[in-house]
Design a protein that fits this description.
single chain; 240 residues; alpha+beta; 8 strands; 18% strand
Protein backbone atom coordinates (compact mmCIF):
# COMPACT_ATOMS: atom_id res chain seq x y z
CA UNK A 1 0.00 0.00 0.00
CA UNK A 2 1.24 3.48 -0.87
CA UNK A 3 0.73 7.15 -0.13
CA UNK A 4 -3.06 7.14 0.35
CA UNK A 5 -2.64 5.40 3.70
CA UNK A 6 -0.79 8.48 4.94
CA UNK A 7 -3.27 10.98 3.41
CA UNK A 8 -0.39 12.65 1.56
CA UNK A 9 2.32 11.88 4.10
CA UNK A 10 5.08 9.73 2.50
CA UNK A 11 4.15 6.36 3.90
CA UNK A 12 4.07 2.83 2.54
CA UNK A 13 3.22 -0.54 4.06
CA UNK A 14 3.41 -4.20 3.13
CA UNK A 15 0.71 -6.59 4.31
CA UNK A 16 1.58 -10.27 4.18
CA UNK A 17 1.31 -13.53 6.09
CA UNK A 18 3.28 -14.27 9.26
CA UNK A 19 5.08 -17.08 7.43
CA UNK A 20 6.37 -14.77 4.71
CA UNK A 21 7.26 -12.06 7.23
CA UNK A 22 9.28 -14.52 9.32
CA UNK A 23 11.32 -15.49 6.26
CA UNK A 24 13.04 -12.09 6.52
CA UNK A 25 14.78 -13.37 9.68
CA UNK A 26 17.06 -15.43 7.47
CA UNK A 27 18.19 -12.53 5.25
CA UNK A 28 19.97 -9.26 5.94
CA UNK A 29 17.57 -6.38 5.34
CA UNK A 30 17.94 -2.74 6.31
CA UNK A 31 15.70 0.27 5.66
CA UNK A 32 16.74 3.71 6.89
CA UNK A 33 13.18 4.94 7.27
CA UNK A 34 11.53 1.64 8.20
CA UNK A 35 9.39 1.96 11.32
CA UNK A 36 9.62 5.77 11.28
CA UNK A 37 7.51 6.83 14.33
CA UNK A 38 6.28 10.00 12.60
CA UNK A 39 5.08 8.03 9.57
CA UNK A 40 3.48 5.45 11.86
CA UNK A 41 1.64 8.23 13.73
CA UNK A 42 0.35 9.65 10.44
CA UNK A 43 -0.91 6.21 9.38
CA UNK A 44 -2.66 5.65 12.69
CA UNK A 45 -4.29 9.08 12.48
CA UNK A 46 -5.71 8.19 9.05
CA UNK A 47 -7.12 4.91 10.38
CA UNK A 48 -8.66 6.72 13.34
CA UNK A 49 -10.37 9.28 11.08
CA UNK A 50 -11.71 6.50 8.82
CA UNK A 51 -13.30 4.88 11.88
CA UNK A 52 -14.44 8.11 13.52
CA UNK A 53 -16.13 9.53 10.41
CA UNK A 54 -17.44 6.17 9.18
CA UNK A 55 -15.74 6.72 5.83
CA UNK A 56 -16.02 3.13 4.66
CA UNK A 57 -19.79 3.29 4.90
CA UNK A 58 -19.68 6.70 3.22
CA UNK A 59 -17.71 5.24 0.31
CA UNK A 60 -20.27 2.46 -0.05
CA UNK A 61 -23.30 4.77 0.06
CA UNK A 62 -21.91 7.62 -2.04
CA UNK A 63 -20.33 5.16 -4.47
CA UNK A 64 -23.72 3.55 -5.07
CA UNK A 65 -25.24 6.99 -5.63
CA UNK A 66 -22.45 7.94 -8.05
CA UNK A 67 -22.69 4.71 -10.07
CA UNK A 68 -26.48 5.04 -10.33
CA UNK A 69 -26.12 8.61 -11.62
CA UNK A 70 -23.48 7.56 -14.14
CA UNK A 71 -25.70 4.73 -15.35
CA UNK A 72 -28.37 7.36 -15.88
CA UNK A 73 -25.92 9.27 -18.08
CA UNK A 74 -25.23 6.02 -19.95
CA UNK A 75 -28.88 5.98 -21.03
CA UNK A 76 -28.50 9.54 -22.33
CA UNK A 77 -25.09 9.35 -24.00
CA UNK A 78 -24.37 6.58 -26.51
CA UNK A 79 -20.63 7.04 -26.01
CA UNK A 80 -20.78 5.53 -22.51
CA UNK A 81 -20.32 1.84 -23.16
CA UNK A 82 -20.04 0.65 -19.57
CA UNK A 83 -20.10 1.89 -15.98
CA UNK A 84 -18.47 -0.27 -13.32
CA UNK A 85 -16.84 0.02 -9.94
CA UNK A 86 -16.83 -0.71 -6.24
CA UNK A 87 -17.33 1.99 -3.64
CA UNK A 88 -15.68 5.19 -4.80
CA UNK A 89 -13.42 3.52 -7.36
CA UNK A 90 -15.45 3.82 -10.55
CA UNK A 91 -14.73 3.42 -14.25
CA UNK A 92 -16.70 4.92 -17.14
CA UNK A 93 -15.79 3.27 -20.44
CA UNK A 94 -16.14 5.51 -23.49
CA UNK A 95 -16.68 3.91 -26.89
CA UNK A 96 -17.21 5.12 -30.44
CA UNK A 97 -19.70 2.41 -31.21
CA UNK A 98 -21.70 0.28 -28.76
CA UNK A 99 -21.95 -2.55 -31.25
CA UNK A 100 -18.24 -2.95 -31.92
CA UNK A 101 -17.13 -1.39 -28.60
CA UNK A 102 -14.43 0.50 -30.50
CA UNK A 103 -12.51 2.45 -27.81
CA UNK A 104 -12.86 6.25 -27.80
CA UNK A 105 -9.27 6.83 -26.75
CA UNK A 106 -8.76 10.35 -28.11
CA UNK A 107 -12.19 11.48 -26.96
CA UNK A 108 -11.48 10.25 -23.43
CA UNK A 109 -8.41 12.48 -23.27
CA UNK A 110 -10.52 15.43 -24.48
CA UNK A 111 -13.14 14.75 -21.80
CA UNK A 112 -10.40 14.76 -19.19
CA UNK A 113 -9.09 18.14 -20.31
CA UNK A 114 -12.53 19.73 -20.61
CA UNK A 115 -13.43 18.70 -17.05
CA UNK A 116 -10.27 20.22 -15.58
CA UNK A 117 -11.33 23.91 -15.85
CA UNK A 118 -14.55 22.91 -14.10
CA UNK A 119 -12.56 21.79 -11.08
CA UNK A 120 -12.96 18.08 -11.86
CA UNK A 121 -9.71 16.09 -11.91
CA UNK A 122 -10.09 12.56 -13.23
CA UNK A 123 -7.76 9.95 -14.63
CA UNK A 124 -7.94 7.55 -17.55
CA UNK A 125 -6.95 3.93 -17.87
CA UNK A 126 -7.93 0.59 -19.34
CA UNK A 127 -6.14 -1.42 -21.99
CA UNK A 128 -6.94 1.28 -24.56
CA UNK A 129 -6.92 4.39 -22.33
CA UNK A 130 -10.65 4.86 -22.91
CA UNK A 131 -11.87 4.41 -19.34
CA UNK A 132 -12.52 7.51 -17.26
CA UNK A 133 -11.28 6.65 -13.78
CA UNK A 134 -13.07 8.27 -10.86
CA UNK A 135 -11.35 7.74 -7.50
CA UNK A 136 -12.12 10.65 -5.17
CA UNK A 137 -11.17 10.91 -1.47
CA UNK A 138 -13.21 8.90 1.03
CA UNK A 139 -14.90 12.08 2.29
CA UNK A 140 -16.57 12.53 -1.11
CA UNK A 141 -20.26 13.45 -0.68
CA UNK A 142 -23.42 12.91 -2.72
CA UNK A 143 -23.35 16.60 -3.56
CA UNK A 144 -19.83 16.16 -4.92
CA UNK A 145 -21.00 13.16 -6.95
CA UNK A 146 -23.88 15.19 -8.39
CA UNK A 147 -21.47 17.97 -9.36
CA UNK A 148 -19.19 15.49 -11.11
CA UNK A 149 -22.06 13.93 -13.06
CA UNK A 150 -23.48 17.33 -14.04
CA UNK A 151 -20.09 18.44 -15.36
CA UNK A 152 -19.55 15.18 -17.24
CA UNK A 153 -23.05 15.46 -18.72
CA UNK A 154 -22.29 19.02 -19.83
CA UNK A 155 -19.00 18.03 -21.48
CA UNK A 156 -20.45 15.03 -23.32
CA UNK A 157 -23.46 17.05 -24.48
CA UNK A 158 -21.17 19.74 -25.89
CA UNK A 159 -19.00 17.17 -27.66
CA UNK A 160 -22.04 15.46 -29.16
CA UNK A 161 -23.26 18.82 -30.44
CA UNK A 162 -20.04 19.19 -32.43
CA UNK A 163 -21.21 16.94 -35.25
CA UNK A 164 -18.24 17.74 -37.46
CA UNK A 165 -15.61 16.49 -35.06
CA UNK A 166 -17.40 14.17 -32.65
CA UNK A 167 -17.63 10.39 -32.81
CA UNK A 168 -20.23 10.68 -30.06
CA UNK A 169 -23.15 11.67 -32.29
CA UNK A 170 -25.64 8.77 -32.59
CA UNK A 171 -25.87 7.64 -36.19
CA UNK A 172 -22.72 9.48 -37.27
CA UNK A 173 -19.37 8.23 -38.52
CA UNK A 174 -18.59 4.77 -37.14
CA UNK A 175 -22.24 4.18 -36.24
CA UNK A 176 -23.11 4.43 -39.94
CA UNK A 177 -21.58 1.01 -40.54
CA UNK A 178 -24.01 -1.66 -41.60
CA UNK A 179 -24.32 -4.90 -39.62
CA UNK A 180 -22.69 -6.73 -42.53
CA UNK A 181 -19.70 -4.35 -42.46
CA UNK A 182 -19.32 -4.97 -38.76
CA UNK A 183 -19.52 -8.75 -39.20
CA UNK A 184 -17.09 -8.79 -42.12
CA UNK A 185 -14.47 -6.38 -40.83
CA UNK A 186 -14.63 -6.75 -37.07
CA UNK A 187 -15.51 -10.42 -36.59
CA UNK A 188 -15.89 -9.57 -32.92
CA UNK A 189 -14.30 -6.52 -31.35
CA UNK A 190 -13.43 -7.14 -27.72
CA UNK A 191 -12.23 -4.48 -25.30
CA UNK A 192 -10.05 -6.44 -22.88
CA UNK A 193 -11.04 -4.18 -19.97
CA UNK A 194 -14.82 -4.41 -20.46
CA UNK A 195 -16.91 -6.98 -18.55
CA UNK A 196 -19.52 -6.71 -21.30
CA UNK A 197 -16.89 -7.73 -23.83
CA UNK A 198 -15.69 -10.55 -21.64
CA UNK A 199 -19.24 -11.90 -21.59
CA UNK A 200 -19.24 -11.69 -25.38
CA UNK A 201 -16.06 -13.78 -25.48
CA UNK A 202 -17.49 -16.32 -23.05
CA UNK A 203 -20.63 -16.73 -25.18
CA UNK A 204 -18.70 -17.11 -28.44
CA UNK A 205 -17.77 -20.43 -29.99
CA UNK A 206 -14.06 -19.67 -29.74
CA UNK A 207 -12.12 -21.01 -26.77
CA UNK A 208 -9.33 -18.49 -27.31
CA UNK A 209 -9.38 -15.36 -25.16
CA UNK A 210 -9.10 -12.90 -28.03
CA UNK A 211 -9.34 -9.18 -28.59
CA UNK A 212 -8.90 -7.24 -31.79
CA UNK A 213 -6.47 -4.35 -31.96
CA UNK A 214 -7.34 -1.94 -34.78
CA UNK A 215 -4.53 -0.56 -36.88
CA UNK A 216 -4.39 1.62 -39.98
CA UNK A 217 -1.55 -0.46 -41.38
CA UNK A 218 -2.93 -3.00 -43.86
CA UNK A 219 0.31 -4.99 -43.65
CA UNK A 220 -0.47 -5.80 -40.02
CA UNK A 221 -3.93 -7.13 -40.73
CA UNK A 222 -3.16 -10.78 -40.08
CA UNK A 223 -0.47 -10.30 -37.46
CA UNK A 224 -1.06 -11.41 -33.89
CA UNK A 225 0.86 -11.02 -30.67
CA UNK A 226 0.63 -12.51 -27.21
CA UNK A 227 0.12 -10.12 -24.32
CA UNK A 228 0.16 -11.72 -20.88
CA UNK A 229 -1.48 -14.91 -22.11
CA UNK A 230 -4.12 -12.96 -24.06
CA UNK A 231 -4.06 -13.28 -27.83
CA UNK A 232 -4.19 -9.88 -29.51
CA UNK A 233 -5.11 -9.97 -33.20
CA UNK A 234 -4.30 -6.84 -35.20
CA UNK A 235 -6.94 -5.91 -37.73
CA UNK A 236 -7.16 -3.01 -40.12
CA UNK A 237 -9.54 -0.33 -38.86
CA UNK A 238 -12.69 0.15 -40.91
CA UNK A 239 -12.91 3.42 -42.80
CA UNK A 240 -16.26 4.99 -43.70
Amino acid sequence: MGKPIGNGFPLGAVVTTREIANSFNSVQYFNTYGGNPVAAAAGLAVLNIIDRDNLQENAKEVGRHLINNLMGLQQKHACIGDVRGVGLYVGVELVRDRTTLEPAREETAVVMEKLRPMGILIGKGGAFNNVVRVKPPLCFTKEDADCLCNCLDSVLTAMEADEENSWFVPGAKSNQRTPQEIDDANDQYVNCASPASQRAVASSSSSVNTCLLYTSDAADEEDSVDLGGRRIIKKKKIKN
